[in-house]
Design a protein that fits this description.
CATH superfamily of the largest domain: PAS domain
CATH class of the largest domain: Alpha Beta
Strand content: 15-25%
Order of helices and strands: HEEEEHHHEEEHHHHHH
Oligomer: single chain
Distance between the termini: 70 Å
Helix content: 40-55%
Structural class: alpha+beta
Amino acid sequence: MPAAQPSLAALRPTLDKLPYAVLATIRDPVQVIDRNHRMVWCNTFTAEGRVWRAEDMIGRICHEKLFDRATPCPDCPAGEVFATGRSRVQEKMFPLPDGSHRWREVHSYPIHGPDGRTAFVVKIGFDITPQKREQNRLEKYLAYLETSLQDAAGDGPDRTVAEARERFGLTAREQEVLRLLAEGFTNLQMAKILAISPHTVKSHVVHVYDKLGVGDRAQAAVWAVRLELI
């Protein structure tokens, strides 16, 4: 005979621990705080150059323990969640001891009490530093590219968009490929739209990159906008 399955009552202690067991597996900072910003639960995590242990933080005031502040942080997402009862996602920058900083995307979720008010807020701060650095790098590159194009094409009435296109020597087909590329189509999709082989599309993309002096789709897309192809 198959072994008897445990009853729901027998499993209740395990089920009651399940949410915290799941939260504890998250490697990023997780805190459950009450309306006084006291941490009633948190995980052990590494952030801002040090290890934060749960046993040292549970029962402590969040802004006092984590940020050495006497009052809540001005941009504390939990305050808004307590006030509105709605979840919130917010990007926050955290300084490091060496003078650098890291970015976290803080997700805050309300836990409602029997009276319907938000009794607790769960905060999870996911590290997005690599994405922010890449975003900043791309924004700086795009700004540089914009300036370079303005220098190349000039701002006077004698330098039209058509003249700028002619300057790069893009063929009509290459302009079509650049337009579709900037609109997000893959090489295979472009091949179907233009009724040519994927190999031919790839060749056109290489020629477009060479003529524009770019190395990826994002950079090419900027030129497509400036050349009014999209």
